[in-house]
Please model this.
Amino acid sequence: MTYPTYHNLIGGQWLPATSGKTMLNLNPADQSDVIGAFPSSHAEDVAAAVAAAKQAFATWRLVPAPKRAEILLRAHDILVQNKEKFARDMTREMGKVLAETRGDVQEAIDEALYVVGEGRRLFGVTTPSELPDKFAMSVRMPVGVVGLITPWNFPMAIPSWKLFPALVAGNTCVIKPATDTPLSTYNLVQALVDAGLPPGVVNIVCGTGSTAGAALVEHPDVRAISFTGSSSVGSLVAQRAAATFKQVSLEMGGKNAQIVLDDANLDLALDGALWGAFGTTGQRCTATSRILLQKGVAAEFTERFVARAKKLKVGNGLDESVEVGPQVNANQIETSARYVEIALAEGAKLLCGGHALTGGAHTHGNFFEPTVFAGVTPQMRIAREEVFGPVVALMEFATFEEAVAIANSIDYGLSTSLYTRNVNRAFAAMRDLEAGITYINAPTIGAEVHLPFGGVKHTGNGHREGLGALDFFTTWKAVYVDYSDKLQRAQIDNAE
Ligand code: NAD
Model:
């Protein structure tokens, strides 16, 4: 089989890894379909990319922000024109169904539109000085060269959340995409190049996390790392980045709960749970992996949920009738299977699924049955640890307060959802659920780009994408202009 070979983008040139080695990008729905060979890069490739970004920073930072934004606007137009092609590329390399990959590209389009306006804002603050004839203001400055490390589950949307705000703010970037999904990041960066982004402003280096990723985190000329991925790798990234005092933004795992109270619209709660648990094959950081059911609705909800989960069509996401695509690789299948064993050993009751799908249309892909466990208690690992597959745990509770306590009893804190018609409970949940995102009468998935995105506890380290990204990709400078023509000493000359 013939397939294309892709290179790193360094200083405006497409270059192979210096090692000459490549990694194959395989279609998870059909492992015999090779999408392409991508560079297997090491520290020297990363160093070349960082050097190019550093050189480009000298001029890019001086381009007026509205002009930087105009390039992003042209990239937006290119994304719109190529939406269908990019979505098909993404389904082929990542697996999720076409409706969802169209949504992923759309998210990059939305992000571009959102950020383009920032080119004419990037607001700072002016404030009175305590001294006469003195002017005080604070302005946003770019950070410098920023390193972006991204996961495979939103292979265009997540890079766009990082690249677009970083660029409009005047930073230059080196991005290391996930090894399973580099093509979608290439498509995004190519759109920026075609839109007229100067050489070196964005550079791509492909490679594994432990080689290319680690080299980016450790490089002394990289001033900030924006990382999205697992909590275990995020912790490592933060520790390594601390050695060179980098700013680090970490967006990590989740174990998201949907709570259904007795007074909920049950049809709506079922639709939301099905979409939240099995959309993207359960491979969203915001995926619903715990469904907390009040005792009055538990039996009916469970029966109807399992009946619908069993009917979901699992297959190649390029087939428009398929509802659940493959898992991204064989490791993810192993993880799902391992958690099924763990849950059974802990005493949870398997209501449907539990196995990899093989044979027929599933022969060459990484498919796993939509899987539902009941009788799950808060201490079980299946209730506490991220599976990142189509595996969901049903849990029962008696009171609203108990549900909030269970929802909060884990290390993660990304997304939560409450289905109820009781406005008092809804507002109490918005206040009390420990999570970066809370939905009322909507599933745990479905964030919009212009709101803050991120989580608490082991999910994040306090930064936010979307509304909040510019706070990470800029650094404040305080500026004082004294027009009194004399030395004025703050805190001293203004004291009575
Ligand atoms: P991962 O942590 O394995 O990898 C993420 C990225 O880090 C990849 O590009 C990888 O190559 C790189 N990496 C790995 N080891 C590294 C190292 N030592 N140094 C530097 N970089 C390294 O995660 P994944 O499997 O790609 O993605 C799934 C995880 O991402 C899940 O935990 C999911 O919840 C999380 N996620 C979080 C969000 C969010 O915004 N909170 C969004 C999507 C995914």
User: Anything to note?
Assistant: The mean pLDDT is 98. The first strand starts at residue 8 and ends at 10.
